[in-house]
Write a structure and sequence with these properties.
alpha+beta; five-stranded antiparallel β-sheet; 42% helix; YjbR-like_sf; MmcQ/YjbR family DNA-binding protein; YjbR/MT2646/Rv2570-like
């Protein structure tokens, strides 16, 4: 039961950062039954459990981030070769997390919408 509370807290943190970034047309929803935020019907961030969120990012970008900060970004066999990057939510500060959310949003947003966002 308590893990749900933690996931809600994580979702609230993500929602706050998304709002502060003024990302347009973000919808809360679910992705494979897990809490997620979507743009254009596609999830750009998913709360996997009470320790991990998964961002949608290009594979080459994933590799860069894992090299840059392996204490935050990692992948399991499940994610190898997929444009999804797990990260340890307790290891990342709001400022960096917000930058990654913007990146993931840009990666998933429809082209027309991207043109409207600075």
């Amino acid at each position: 039961m308590s893990s749900n509370v933690d996931m809600d807290v994580i979702a609230e943190r993500l929602n706050r950062l998304v709002m502060q970034a003024r990302l347009p047309e973000v919808e809360p929803g679910t992705h494979y039954g897990l809490p997620a935020f979507k743009v254009g019907g596609k999830a750009f961030v998913t709360v996997k459990n009470n320790e991990t969120i998964v961002l949608s990012l290009p594979i080459d970008r994933k590799e860069q981030l894992m090299e840059m900060a392996p204490e935050i970004y990692f992948q399991t066999d499940h994610y190898v070769g997929w444009p999804s990057l797990p990260l340890r939510i307790t290891a990342i500060g709001d400022e960096e997390l917000q930058r990654r959310l913007i990146e993931a949003w840009r990666y998933r947003a429809p082209k027309k919408l991207l043109a409207t966002f600075g």
